[in-house]
Design a protein that fits this description.
Blueprint: H1 3-16, E1 25-27, E2 34-36, E3 42-52, H2 64-81, E4 85-95, H3 101-117, E5 121-129, E6 135-145, E7 160-164, H4 169-178, H5 186-197, H6 203-212, E8 215-220, H7 225-236, E9 239-243, H8 251-260, H9 264-270, E10 277-281, H10 283-295, E11 300-307, E12 313-316, E13 322-324
Parallel strand pairs: 4-5, 9-12
Antiparallel strand pairs: 1-2, 2-3, 3-6, 4-6, 7-10, 7-11, 8-10, 9-11, 12-13
């Protein structure tokens, strides 16, 4: 049996059974970040992500500064999904000895610049030689109020699904990098490629959602909307009904879909790397939260509802016809992006 046979989720399940839960562990593996209780006024959030050249990124698509910024941003998104405030980070870099020093300078400028924008201090890390390409690992610590941490588990039947922002732009941008389209307007191409290279973690929005006290479950959309919905439903033992015509797609994503004959909804459902937040809300609190988020400059969109245990995952079109929602998306040991 190979890793390709069990996939990322299968490997994680296999490893979870071997992890001991020590004192102070409020939540270990299975969420966007571990949650630790060190006895202070706030809980500690701990997350880590690795980017591997020609698996998660290609240097042909963007600058080293872009790469550094993205490596930090994907970790910030994990803390955002937990409703936390990021504070400290360390960076591990593996690189060939032939790598230009100027490239590493630019990489760390991107890391440090994004860290500073979100109030994060870089406090160290490690460097090591690697024979084939770059490997960048960022470990990030955050803080969250004891009663304000957002988890994947918590959604119940009748809750409503919401998302921040719009979806599919990163996957559409990657499509353009891999499949240049001469008829694509430059402004559309630029915006979609930027969405792929420079994601914006929703740290402020996550903090507002946590402070509202009405969010029952949350996760960042790093692996596609369909898989993220499946994660929340698996954690809570519930099902889901998503409304296809409610999934927010930017005008640029829709335009590229028309130009290429692709269904733009597919980029939102299965593309990943949007780093928006998917969350659930009790129905009685939804309208108030919508108003609060819009007033704060972070509008959110209702896209479906939570179903009961055993009712499955469904995608419903504008005519009311439903089909099973296959929880596909990025798998670390499956198809490369």
């Amino acid at each position: 049996m190979r890793l390709a046979d069990v996939g990322e989720s299968g490997l994680v399940e296999r490893l979870l059974g071997r992890l001991a839960r020590g004192p102070g562990v409020v939540r270990g593996a299975g969420d966007d970040a571990a949650v630790l209780d060190l006895g202070g006024k706030e809980l500690l959030l701990f997350t880590v992500d690795t980017l591997v050249e020609e698996v998660h990124f290609s240097r042909a698509y963007g600058s080293m500064r872009d790469l550094g910024a993205k490596a930090m941003a994907v970790n910030l998104s994990d803390v955002a999904a937990m409703g936390g405030r990021p504070v400290y980070a360390v960076v591990s870099l593996a690189a060939p000895a032939e790598t230009a020093v100027a490239d590493i300078d630019d990489l760390y400028a991107g890391l440090a610049g994004t860290a500073a924008r979100y109030g994060v201090t870089l406090v160290g890390g490690d460097t090591v030689r690697h024979p084939h390409g770059l490997v960048i690992t960022v470990a990030l610590l955050g803080l969250a109020g004891r009663e304000r941490v957002l988890y994947r588990k918590g959604a119940v039947s009748g809750d409503l699904f919401y998302v921040t922002g719009s979806l599919g732009a990163s996957a559409a941008g990657l499509f353009l990098f891999q499949n240049p389209h001469p008829a694509c307007p430059p402004e559309v191409e630029d915006r979609l490629k930027k969405a792929h290279l420079s994601p914006e973690p929703r740290v402020v929005a996550g903090g507002l959602l946590a402070a509202s006290g009405v969010v029952s479950a949350a996760e960042d959309i790093s692996d596609g909307l369909a898989l993220t919905v499946a994660h929340i439903c698996t954690a809570g033992g519930v099902g889901a009904r998503l409304l296809a015509d409610r999934v927010p797609l930017s005008p640029e994503v829709r335009r590229l879909g028309i130009l290429t004959g692709k269904d733009p909804l597919e980029w939102a459902l299965f593309g990943g790397e949007d780093y928006e937040l998917l969350f659930t809300v009790r129905p009685g609190a939804a309208a108030g939260l919508e108003r609060e988020m819009a007033a704060a400059g972070w509008p959110v969109t209702w896209i479906g509802e939570v179903l009961g245990p055993g009712e499955g995952l469904w995608l419903e079109d504008a005519a009311g016809a439903g089909r099973p929602l296959v929880p596909g998306g990025y798998d670390a040991f499956g198809t490369e992006p």
